[in-house]
Design goal:
The complex is a heterodimer of chains A (162) and B (588). Chain A is α+β, with helices and mostly antiparallel strands and 162 residues long. Chain A is built from 7 helices and 4 strands, in the order H-H-H-H-E-H-H-E-E-E-H. Chain A folds into 2 domains: 56 residues, no CATH class; 81 residues, 3-Layer(aba) Sandwich (Glutaredoxin), CATH 3.40.30. In chain A, 43% of the residues lie in helices and 11% in strands. Chain B is α/β, with parallel strands linked by helices and 588 residues long.
């Protein structure tokens, strides 16, 4: 098989593929690793993985579009995840999304022009007592009320804590 | 669906007793009992996917409704296929499918032969109680061979099944989930940038107008208005035994003479036959085989190259096997090139004014006519437009000509006569059989006694045989359906890698199961039974031919004498041969 662009895969990924390529369920495990290493599933990487594990690219896209955890686009430097689990949903998760969209000027699964922020929806993050909840690069902000968001985002705008 | 023993079981369908094979599904058993259970996703040619949910039936002592397409009959089953409740449930499923359908029936290519339209009519749907939400964006015409309109897709998955399981091309897949689930190439790119090989099997299996041939019948009618042009036409072997299905005839009914007559009625100046091109292909390809086999010039095995979907597949998936490919163009390209050179010269016609139409069982031929610069070997595009059998059915209906009332007519010289070997090109094994008949003569100087090479006929996925040519054993393989073709390609690859001797000398490949008779442009609802009937039509045609070997074709002999000199001459190479290059599986 020939690929359009040759791409050098991350060594962590290569080692992982080596370990998994003959095992059952390899495709999900390897794609998880891709997501972990790159933060999304870049097409060039997907094509290379398809070649290495002899799995048609169409099958890979079937998987990565079916499961929410896989992203097709590069996320922002700061990934804002809004919880839409049952508790957060009931406590106004939708309002948080609307507010984020209006502040950042982008929709869900999009990235701001400067590449700084992206918005995504996640299912229950396991702290329903704090609903509604958002995460910024994994850091949890709970019991949010209208108007809390600008300050939170400003923390990352001014001095990035990564 | 895994059942090993085939035993008879007693079941009840709609209160009547039946004894049926336990290997049947409820759907198949009901069909044998002449009961039609509606379905939109199950195609007789494909395994069940249980996507649409219209085939539900009741089985006594089962709380749930059961999908008839994917449930095997069991001893003592008491099945109800039609009652008020089932009507209601099925109608509801239908309404939900229609709630995402664009209702463009009047301008749809499938108007009048759409499976969804037919069911809506049978169920007496007069209104849909749900909001109409149509998904899908712009129609994809990028391949100029098949057209994909996602708006009309009902998500039955037949195209995915045939593309992935039968053809193993994987151009199409189900993406996303829930309401957003859709069928598309990986990454929602256009088909022309995907691994699609344009075989059109998706279009031949689609129940609705979501995937159809790139229709050019209108363009043909418009061209016929231009009186400065000299329109000529050629008809592929497989068209003549399937066209009748569009007019209520049995598969396999031979309509060669009527098709010739039809094209004369609507104004074509010369009627040629792709079968002539097939005979010529055998002379070129057969000579190529002899060059490689006897004179050691070139690599063995030689692989046939008449099938443009196969050519596309090879260039994308097996570029390492390109050296094995016959450089001979496909028969319709040969006839196209000669119509604008040899025929034009003979008749004193400006080749620029010749409009060459080819009628093919195939969607990939539409792609082939502009595949590379070699398809302009006459100085013009050698074949101007290629239409499918399905488009010809519509053209005949448009014309008002009653095809079945037409008297048989003959094709025109100098590209119109054919032998039995040319006509069997349309069935799997046919090219091989035709080649063997002529190669035998070329190798031994004697005529083959028994011209029927039964070993390479039939629907077995890969057929292998050894032909004795005066002590020289020629090992051949015939594969059809890309899934089966892969098996043979992998064998070759393995031998190459390990340095083992090649297992074959000559290989015939056709991308579609059964060969061109079941091509992607042929009438709908093909099954193995229909494949067999259409093939039989071609073998009957062969049997009736006075001449049954390509090298006996008088017009082919005349062509070499007057114009080409001999097979593989410089002129032949220029007009009748082509080259192949490795291509990426994904362009994007």
């Amino acid at each position: 098989m020939k690929t359009q662009k040759d791409v050098q895969l991350d060594t962590r990924l290569l080692d992982f593929i080596e370990e998994w390529k003959d095992k059952k369920g390899k495709e999900i495990m390897i794609l998880h690793k891709v997501q972990e290493v790159y933060g999304f599933v870049p097409r060039a990487v997907a094509i290379e993985v398809s070649r290495m594990i002899d799995l048609p690219l169409a099958k890979i896209y079937g998987i990565i579009t079916f499961y929410h955890i896989f992203k097709l686009k590069k996320p922002g430097k700061f990934k804002v995840s809004v919880c839409m689990g049952t508790a957060c949903y009931l406590k106004g998760g939708n309002d948080l999304i609307a507010e984020l969209e209006s502040i950042l000027g982008i929709g869900v699964n999009a990235v701001t022009e400067d590449g700084k922020f992206s918005i995504e929806i996640v299912r229950c993050v396991g702290c329903c007592g704090l609903a509604p909840v958002i995460l910024v690069n994994g850091k949890t902000y709970g019991n949010l009320k209208k108007g809390d968001l600008p300050n939170i985002l400003n923390e990352y705008r001014e001095e990035p804590k990564n | 669906m895994t059942q090993t023993k085939d035993i008879k079981v007693n079941i009840k369908i709609n209160n009547k007793d039946y004894s049926v094979s336990s290997s049947l599904t409820i759907l198949e058993a009901a069909k044998l009992a002449h009961i039609k259970i509606p379905t939109l996703c199950k195609h007789e040619d494909l395994p069940p996917t249980a996507n649409c949910g219209i085939c539900v039936v009741k089985v006594k002592n089962n709380r749930k409704l059961i999908r008839a397409c994917c449930t095997l009959v069991e001893k003592g089953m008491d099945i109800t296929t039609h009652d008020g409740e089932l009507y209601e449930v099925r109608k509801n499923v239908l309404e939900l499918i229609l709630s995402t359908h664009p209702f463009l029936c009047l301008t749809c290519l499938r108007n009048g032969n759409c499976e969804l339209q037919k069911l809506a009519e049978e169920f007496g749907i007069r209104e849909v109680p749900y909001n109409n939400i149509v998904k899908g964006g712009k129609t994809d015409t990028s391949t100029k061979a098949v057209v994909f309109d996602a708006q009309k897709c009902i998500g039955c998955g037949r195209c995915v099944e045939v593309c992935q399981e039968i053809q193993q091309v994987h151009a199409l897949e189900f993406l996303d989930r829930g309401f957003n689930a859709r069928i598309a190439p990986a990454g929602d790119i256009q088909l022309a940038d995907s691994p699609c090989i344009k075989c059109g099997q998706c279009s031949a299996h689609c129940p609705v107008g979501a995937i159809v041939e790139f229709s050019q019948a209108t363009q043909v009618w418009l061209t016929l208005r231009d009186e400065t042009l000299h329109p000529v036409v050629q008809i592929a072997p497989a068209v003549r035994v399937a066209l009748g299905e569009g007019f209520g005839l049995e598969p396999g009914a031979l309509l060669t003479g009527q098709i010739y007559a039809f094209f004369r009625r609507i104004g074509f100046k010369a009627i040629f036959d792709t079968n002539f091109g097939a005979d010529l292909t055998i002379m070129e390809e057969g000579s190529e085989l002899i060059e490689r086999l006897v004179h050691g010039k070139g690599t063995l095995p030689l692989i046939t190259s008449c099938c443009p979907a196969w050519v596309d597949f090879l260039e994308k998936y097996y570029p390492d096997l390109i050296e094995h490919f016959s450089t001979a163009k496909s028969p319709h390209e040969m006839v196209g090139a000669l119509s604008k050179t040899y025929y034009a010269e003979k008749m004193g016609i400006d080749p620029g004014k010749i409009f060459m139409l080819s009628v093919m069982p195939c969607t990939a031929k539409k792609f082939e006519i502009a595949r590379t610069a070699d398809m302009h070997s006459s100085g013009y595009q050698d074949v101007d437009v290629s239409i499918t059998t399905r488009e010809l059915v519509r053209m005949i209906k448009t014309s008002g000509v009653n095809l079945l009332d037409l008297e048989d007519e003959k094709a025109d010289s100098v590209l119109g006569s054919y032998t039995g070997a040319g006509t069997i090109f349309g069935a799997t094994g046919g090219v091989m059989e035709a080649a063997i008949r002529t190669a035998y003569f070329l190798v031994t100087g004697k005529e083959l006694e028994n011209l029927d090479v039964e070993d390479v006929r039939g629907l077995k996925g890969v057929k292998r045989a050894t032909v004795d040519m005066n002590g020289k054993k020629i090992r051949v393989a015939v594969a059809h359906g890309i899934g089966n073709v892969r098996e043979v390609c992998e064998e070759l690859r393995e031998c190459k890698a390990s340095g083992k001797p090649m297992p074959y000398d000559f290989i015939e490949v056709m991308a579609c199961e059964g060969g061109c008779i079941a091509g992607g442009g042929q009438p709908y609802q093909v099954t193995n039974k229909i494949r067999t009937m259409r093939s039989k039509g071609l073998y009957n045609d062969d049997g009736k031919c006075e001449l049954r070997c390509s090298h006996h074709n008088k017009e082919v002999q005349q062509l070499y004498k007057e114009f080409l000199d001999k097979p593989l001459s410089d002129k032949s190479h220029h007009l009748l041969h082509t080259k192949y290059i490795p291509r990426p599986i994904y362009y994007k």
